[in-house]
Amino acid sequence: MAKKMRQNFFGGFILTGKHLTRPRVTRQYPDEKKPKQPRQHGRHVLNRYEDGMEKCIGCELCAGVCPADCIYVRGLDNPPDHPVSPGERYGYVYEINYLRCIHCDMCVEACPTQAITESKLFEFSFTSRNDAIYTKAELVVDDDGMPQKLPWEDWREGDDLLTSGWMRATSPAGNAEFEGVVQWSGELGYGTRAPEGGQSGNRDDEATGTKALRDILEPHLLNKDIPKAHKGMQGRLWRAKVNAEKNKAKIEKLKGLYKDRREAAKAAKAAQQ
Amino acid sequence: MNPVAFLATGDPLYAHGVNWVVVLIALIKVLVAFGALMGAVTLMIWFERKVISDMQSRIGPNRVGPWGILQSLADGIKLFFKEDLIPDRSDRFVFKLAPYLSVVPALLIFTVVPVGGVVTVAGHTFELQVADPQMGILLVLAMSGIGVYGIMLSGWASGSKYPLLSSVRASAQMISYEAALGMTVVMVVLVTGSLSTRTMVDVQGNNILHWNVLRLGIVPFVIFMIAVIAETNRPPFDVVEAESELVGGFHTEYSSIRFALFFLAEFMNTITMSAIMVTLFFGGPNGPVPKIAHIAWVFPILYFLIKTVIFCYIFVWLRGALPRLRYDRLMDLGWKRLIPLSLAWMLLVAGFLINAWWGIGLAAAVVVGAIVLNRSFDLGAEVEASGHAVLPPLGTKPVPPALLRELTDLEGEL
Questions:
Q1: Which of the residues B54, B226, B315, B329 would you substitute to probe the A interface, choosing the one with the greatest number of A C-beta atoms within 10 Å?
Q2: Residues B204 and B146 both lie in one domain
């Protein structure tokens, strides 16, 4: 009877009535943005080593691999008295035309020194063709290792983090043996970044900002594909347990932090006296 | 006959002759009603968009003013300053006339709606209603009849295919539902014994059991509600402006302020028809009034507003919940269900108003009539199914295989 009611004349009223209390699906886009995926492809950055040296060696592999032909690089020998990069040569000219770039990330894959990576920024616009060509001055990270925030770009919190998303992906070499193994050099401001978690279990989700694929997809799965232990009351208990574990780690961390701070404060006080 | 007496017999304002104060009060009433209705229409458009978006898990208008409440004002300003296009093949005079034929009746219906009780200001006692003519509810029927012309003429005068189709649909639909609408009004008139809307409201009183919705049984109210939705061309009976079939229906060729007028008329009709429904079946402004000096007159208005808003909400909910009816189903519902049902119920009401024996007698007649009608519907359906109908319904029967082969087989020609 109840099921029939749901399908007949009153079904529409019941459904629309239910929707009144449901959360809205619309996002107020320019005011409120969706968190971006850890491997999102956005505007490029040219990275530097931890000592401030540029990573780019001017090899032009990125320009060669670029399917849109948007990168223009010219290398030059490093001046011996004040070298720009640790190697023999450095990128003397580096230009990317963003009217052409399709953000395929093939330059990032091609780069032998992990010099070029992509940030999460995709909301930038220009009023002239010349402005669309980013030069080296605009692409190289600043002294904190952060991408430069140019006035016509709409940077939001978190857009400038995890700029080397693809590089740290599950075994970028395509070899399962290298899953979770660091194969990249350190970066200015960040040090050596943690690898993204794969299937091996040695994942550091907090450091990499990633989530297990299963967790991400579960809300989108069909009901029959969700394991029984994750459904209904059982599922609630399971989620509570998982969350409690996560929170426990966080609380421990915070506790440790405050403990350190308290001790530091105590030490400072003692030193004053 | 004195025209003032004819137009406003019920109103005690005109009891002691007409002087300039009386004229001033009447003018103020007209202006206030006009302003309130215009404001209500802009709010109604916003309300409808907001509620529909709530029902679809969207946000809806939220940019202009708090909660987007001024959205329809902004839309109105935009429409006002847009270019006014008149199609080349249109009948220019009728094309320009039609929007006004749509708006003016919608405005006039509201004049006979009692929005409050009787108040006394500076020695002048008057009713809170623009006019209280003897013919009251007849004015509503007449005006909703004239409203059809606005839609019919606009579609015809556009000189375009879809508007014409729409206006043909509109005239057929509105005329057929007007019959059921009139019949339910007749029931209310029967129990009231008067055509005046004020009297209808007064007769219903404060007791909820005496309100016409319960006094007549729920059926007339339901029929009236369905007929009103069809009459105002609102979903699910909006075949007249079915976006997926007829682009914009009768107002496809209209732009700028003329389009705004149609839009205005449509939503004004929704409000006025809600108000009429409240007046006829839900006691209008009646309700318990606490004895507080000076502000007691506010409560009837408040009750009236609450009841009207509830009906506006129901209209919106219907739009959100139900899909559009197919055109032939719509006509079936009107002619085969609503008209016989309202006719039968009217007989019952009339019979029981005389005495119980008449009532039982007419009930028996209704049962016999229902059986005969049902049998005739069955016979008609059989004739249609057998293919002997004078005009077989379109799309209900597949093309006979032999004919199909004849039409599609090109072997003979090749």
A1: B54
A2: yes
Residues B223, B362, single domain; the answer is no
pTM: 0.73
Read off the pLDDT of residues A123-155 as tens digits, 9 standing for 90 and up: 888 888 888 899 998 899 888 888 888 888 888
B55: nearest CB among A19, A25, A26: A19
Residue A115, token pair as written in the block: 């010099």
**Alpha carbon distance A253, B92 (integer Å):** 79
**Contact by Cβ (8 Å): A75, A91:** yes
Region of residue B90 (left: phi > 0; alpha: psi -120 to 50; beta: else): beta
User: What percent of chain A is predicted at pLDDT more than 90?
Assistant: 10
d(CA B225, CA B316): 13
B297, B363: one domain: no
User: Is B55's CB within 8 Å of A24's CB?
Assistant: no
- Return the C-alpha torsion angle B306, B311, B315, B317, nearest 10: 70
- Give yes or no: residues B56 and B116 share one domain: yes
Residue B150 half-sphere exposure toward CB, CA atoms < 13 A: 27
* Total domains, chain B: 2
B172 domain residue, yes or no? yes
CB contact under 8 A, B58 and A25: yes
Ranking A46-55, A201-210, B67-76, B217-226 by mean pLDDT, the lowest is A201-210
Residues of A with Cβ-Cβ distance to B317 under 8 angstroms = 13, 16-17
> So where are chain A's domains?
27-211, 217-272
C-alpha A53/C-alpha B38 separation (Å) is: 70
Residue B186 lies in a domain: yes
B144 — phi, psi (to 5°)? -70, -25
CA of A4 to nearest chain B CA: how many angstroms apart? Answer: 16
CB contact under 8 A, B57 and A28: no
Which of A9, A12, A19 has the CB atom closest to B57's CB atom?
A19
Question: What topology does CATH give the domain A27-211?
Answer: Alpha-Beta Plaits (3.30.70)
Does the pLDDT of residue A104 top 70, yes or no? yes
The separation between CA A236 and the C-alpha centre of its own chain, rounded to angstroms, equals: 30
* B236 and B375 together in one domain: no
Same domain assignment for residues B110 and B163: yes
Contact with chain B for residue A26, Cβ under 8 A: yes
Residue B57 and residue A13: Cβ atoms within 8 Å? no
- CB atoms A12 and B321 under 8 Å: yes
Give the count of beta carbons closer than 10 Å to the beta carbon of residue B29: 20
A12 touches chain B (CB under 8 A): yes
Distance CA B133, CA B137 (A): 9
- On whether both B378 and B347 belong to a single domain, the answer is no
Q: B321: distance to nearest CA of chain A, Å? A: 4
Q: What is the full DSSP assignment across A136-198?
A: HHHHB--TTSPPP--TTB---TTTTS-TBTTTTSS-TTS-GGGTT---S--BTTTBSPPPPP-
**Residue B212 domain boundaries:** 3-354
